[in-house]
Amino acid sequence: MSLPEVLTPGVAIIGGGPAGLMAAEVLAAAGHAVTVFDAKPSVGRKFLLAGKGGLNLTHSEAFAPFVGRFGDRAAQIEPLLRGFDAEALRAWAAGLGIETFIGTSGRVFPTDLKAAPLLRAWLHRLRAAGVRFSMRHRWTGWSADGLLRFDTPEGERLAAPRATLLALGGASWPQLGSDGAWAPWLAERGVDVAPLQPANCGFDVGRTAAHPDAPGWSERFATEFAGQPVKPAALATEGFERRAGEFVITASGIEGSLVYAASRALREQIHQHGQATLQLDLLPQLSAERVLAEVKHPRGSRSLSSHLKSRLHLNPLKLGLLHELLTREQMLDAATLAAALKQLPLTLHATRPVAEAISTAGGVRFEALTDELMLRALPGVFVAGEMLDWEAPTGGYLLTASLASGRAAAQGMSRWLTA
């Protein structure tokens, strides 16, 4: 039986997402021989999929509120962003020939909104700089003597790099490569890893007035309205200030931008109490007084639904939500109904699985890392990107921090190699 081939890749970067590719660029520019290993046939798969609806590169808001989006990890993310902030990212993209613009929401996009041209230009520059790519190399941990192990179509291969950067992503969208398999391997070697959890995720609803015997929407409501957006609307919950926007009804609950923004607060409530309750404002453009006056307006022979549609322009979906979440008695009491239109309680009992989430919370705790993003328990092994224990809302924050952490880890690795 022949022994596995042992590769000598110079510096090994495991994971070909934004953090890994940025690290490869920085290390190659510093004169290091770099090989990027990835389990898939091509790199940047999640990056490309995220850009299908328009690649949101970063956000244009001021630095302080930008950093504040990272919550209790803002102190650890701030130095990374000071090295590579939103303006630096836009300048970097321009260097690849990709011009950007600021949308009405403050989000920053490429002028053509596409991810593929940026990735093509980036890979061309990386290859020109000497970066090598070893595809279909699925990392499976370390051998007994500390070599990197890879499962490949040709069998197992081992690698003995001078240093290693792990940029394997979290556990969301595992079909694109980030399956979280690395977490137990690091934990076994003494690395403190926070449990991987869904972030920017959807939720399953709890019991409703229309379906009191078991969690979930009634079959009728789910069949009629799943996939439809609720807008305009506003949402508030414990730990999350009221915000206007929109969300989407799913077969089992809710998802969408407004829900993603509140997902951390909702997830923590579920962990602590077994459920979370949010309040929906179905008429954020109207005052409570105006809503009450319109509900109380004489309706004559019209049905209640026709009355609400006429006076408050409620669409079938919002009417359906009222019937789903209120009892008949509540619907017929004008004061209760008007209050519900401005503050409709909705109970959630579970997050959707982490594989469905936009991103992942948890990961390698910063306390397990040096300031250079090197693992204290594994000298010469660095970590970047969504493997780190941080989370942020959608809007360009996730990508910016991933790129910034890849850059910082590569700089730390270069200093460690030349010390």
- N/C terminus separation: 40 Å
| Shape descriptor | elongated
Strand order of the largest sheet: 13-16-15-14-17-18
Most strands sheet = 6 strands, antiparallel, barrel
Number of helical stretches of at least 4 residues: 16
Low-confidence stretches: none
* DSSP helix fraction: 25-40%
Q: Strand share of the residues?
A: 15-25%
Q: How many β-strand stretches? A: 20
Structural class: alpha+beta
Taking all Cα atoms into account, the compactness measure Rg is 25 Å
Summarize this structure briefly.
The chain has 419 residues and is of the alpha+beta class.
Describe, in plain words, how this protein is organized in 3D.
By secondary structure, the protein is an alpha+beta fold. It has 16 helices and 20 strands. It has helices at residues 18-29, 45-50, 63-68, 74-83, 86-95, 116-128, 182-188, 219-225, 257-261, 263-273, 288-296, 304-312, 316-325, 328-332, 334-342, 397-418; strands at 5-7, 11-14, 34-37, 58-59, 100-102, 107-110, 132-134, 138-142, 148-152, 155-159, 163-166, 193-199, 203-205, 229-237, 240-249, 253-255, 276-281, 344-351, 359-364, 381-383. A six-stranded antiparallel beta barrel has the order 13-16-15-14-17-18. A five-stranded parallel beta sheet has the order 7-3-2-11-20, covered by helices on one side. Helix 1 packs parallel to helix 16 and helix 4 packs across helix 16. The mean pLDDT is 95.
